[in-house]
Amino acid sequence: MNRCGVLVVGAGPAGATLALQLARAAVPVTLVEARDGFARQFRGDALMPSGLEALARMGLWDLVERLPRRPLDGWSVRVEGRELFWVAEPLGSLQPCTLVRQQDLLEAVLAEGRRLPTLQWRSGVAVTGLLREGERVVGVRLADGEELPAALVVVADGRDSPLRQQAGLTLHRPAAPIDVLWFRLPGHPQLERRNDFLTLVGGGAIASAFGGADGHLQIGWVVAPGEPQPQLTAPAWCERFAALAPPWLAEHCQRSAAALQGPLRLRVQVGLAPRWWRPGLLLLGDAAHPMSPVRAQGINMALRDSLVAAEALIPLWCAPDGAGAAGPPLVWERLDRTLAAIQARREPEIRRMQALQAAEARQGRLIAHQAQLRRLLAAAAPLLGPLAKASWLRRQKPLREGLAGSLPASPFDVPVRERTDRQA
Ligand SMILES: Cc1cc2nc3c(=O)[nH]c(=O)nc-3n(C[C@H](O)[C@H](O)[C@H](O)COP(=O)(O)OP(=O)(O)OC[C@H]3O[C@@H](n4cnc5c(N)ncnc54)[C@H](O)[C@@H]3O)c2cc1C
C-alpha cells in the first residue's frame, strides 16, 4: 500500500463492495476487517429492490444469482393475533424483496476482489487510529502497530464507528435508542409454501418474524426506550410469540421452545452524521447514518452509498490528470470536493428513508400501545384492513426502491478503465 491508494476500513456491505468496485477499476485498494470470517449468528439478509439495483449496477448481478437466495412471498400485518391485511410481493417493483445470507454475499464479493491484484485484504486486525498530516487524514494505524498510508481512508466500520469519533465527526441522534431482541427458531414447512414477513402487534408488543435465507425462522422483538428487557426463559418467550402469531407459528414456537436461540440484544440508535467527510477521509454506510431496522434499509442504503462513492471516486484515479499509483499526485482539493459531492448525493435519500422509517415506527407504537385501537382493528379487520393496507402501500415504494434519481443516471456514465495489471 502506498499513499496513492484507498484504504477501506470494514468489510461489511458498504466496505466490501466499494473495495471490489475500486479494485475492478484498477484503483489500488486495501480492505481491512477486524474480524476473521463473516459468520455471525444474527445478521440481516433482506435485500430490497433498492439494494438489488445497486448490486446489479455494480456489475454483481451474476454473483447474486449464483448465491442461495429466496424471495419473500408477501407482507402480513397482524393485530391481536388476527390478520389485518396481506400484500403479495413484489408490490409493483421489478424485483421482490430477496433474502440472501449476508455472510454468503460478503464472502462472494471478497472472493471476486481477491482475484484482483489491485486489492489487498487484511483480516483479523482492527484499525485503531488515524494518521494525520495537519488536518488531512493520510492513513491508519492497525492494532499490531503497523501504519498504512493512503490517499483516502473510507470508514465503513458500522454503526458504532469509533473512527468516526476519532475523526471528530459527530452523529445527530433524532430519537432515543430502542433495543431489538433477535431470536432464531428452526424452520417450518409453512415457510417453504409461503414465506411472509409477519408484523405482529398485540398487548403492547411489536414483533416480526420471517424465514431467513438459511431456512431458519428469525424473530425480532422491540423493547421500547426505557423498558427493561423481559427476563424470560425460552418457553416463556415462545408463549409470548405464540400469543401474537398465526396458529401454525404459535404451535411451532411452543413445540420448538427448546431450540430457541437468542436473544441477541441489538441497540438501535438511528442517526445521521451532519458531515461525512474530512480531508482524506469519508464515512459510508452505518458509520455515516445508522438506520432503523424498520423495513430493512441498512444493507440496502450501504450498497447504494458504495455505488455512488465508487462512481464518483474512480474517475479521479482514472482521469489522465488523476492520481493512480502511476499518475501524477492526486490533487487533494479535487478529492475533497468529490467527498463532499458523495455526501450531497446520498444524504437526501438517507434523510427520506429515515423519516419514512420513523413514520412507520410511530404508527406501530400507536397501535401497540392503544388497546382500544387494537381491539377495533382486530374486530373490524375485514372492513378496516383494506384502508390500512392502502395507507401502508403508499409509503412502501420509496422504502423498497429508494428515492427516484438518487443514483447516477447510468452505470456507464463514468470512464472506468478495466485493468488487470497492478499499477507500479
Ligand atoms: C440482527 C440484524 C438484522 C438486520 N437485518 C437487516 C436486513 O434484513 N436488511 C438490511 O438492509 N439491514 C439489516 N440490518 C442492518 C445491516 O446489517 C447494517 O445496516 C449493514 O450491515 C451496514 O453495513 P455497513 O457495511 O455500513 O456496516 P457493517 O455491516 O456493520 O460492517 C462493518 C464492518 O466493519 C468491521 N469493523 C468494525 N470496526 C473495525 C475496525 N476498527 N477495523 C476494521 N474493521 C472494523 C466490522 O467487523 C464489520 O465487518 C440488520 C442488522 C442486524 C444486526
Bound molecules: flavin-adenine dinucleotide
Q: Tell me, briefly, the overall form.
A: elongated
Summed up, the domain count is 2
Question: How many helices?
Answer: 12
Radius of gyration equals 22 Å
Sheet with most strands: strand arrangement: 6-5-14-15-16-13-17
Largest sheet: 7 strands, mixed
Describe this structure in words.
It contains twelve helices and 19 strands. With 424 residues, the chain is α/β, with parallel strands linked by helices. The chain folds into two domains: 224 residues, 3-Layer(bba) Sandwich (FAD/NAD(P)-binding domain), CATH 3.50.50.60; 91 residues. The strands form four sheets. It has a seven-stranded mixed beta sheet, with helices on both faces. Strands 8-2-1-12-19-18 form a six-stranded mixed beta sheet, with helices on one face. The C terminus is likely disordered. It binds flavin-adenine dinucleotide (FAD).
